[in-house]
Amino acid sequence: MEAGIHLCTMEELEELFGWNNCRRRLLAQLREFVETELMQAAGQQAPLVLDGTFVTRHESPVEIVVVLLLDEIAEEHFWNGADLYSSHQTVRSRYQIRLYVHSATYGMDALSRIQGIDTVELLEKGLHHKHSKGVVRLN
Questions:
Q1: What is the pLDDT of residues 76-112, one digit of tens each?
Q2: Cα–Cα distance between 110 and 90 in angstroms, integer?
Q3: Secondary structure of 31-64 in the HEC alphabet?
Q4: What is d(CA 60, CA 58) in angstroms, rounded to the nearest whole number?
């Protein structure tokens, strides 16, 4: 995937990445997480950025890496969204989602972290040290 953040709807995500049973199961769990946990905490469909082997051609990803963009949800729900991270172990075991939160306002920079590329991989591929990988933003 090209560097940058690529916008995607849930339907497009299912079409692009739901090409086998393992991936469809992860997508169903993502949808359940969004509809139950996230909607309750954020009071809306909060923007998420997805990463990990799920957004690659990997045949059998184990989980989806998800970053909740806290600065883009309503102020009155900000801390409810942030509190989701305190239950990230439960989220991981229940939904196979590795959850992180991002807020430039509060210095939680999970977005740069997931877009970063391992130094060894950068050297092997001859990439500039500021090169970032592509991720998917679910709106």
A1: 999 998 899 899 999 999 999 999 998 998 888 887 7
A2: 19
A3: HHHHHHHHHHHHCCCCCEEEECHHHCCCCCCCCE
A4: 6
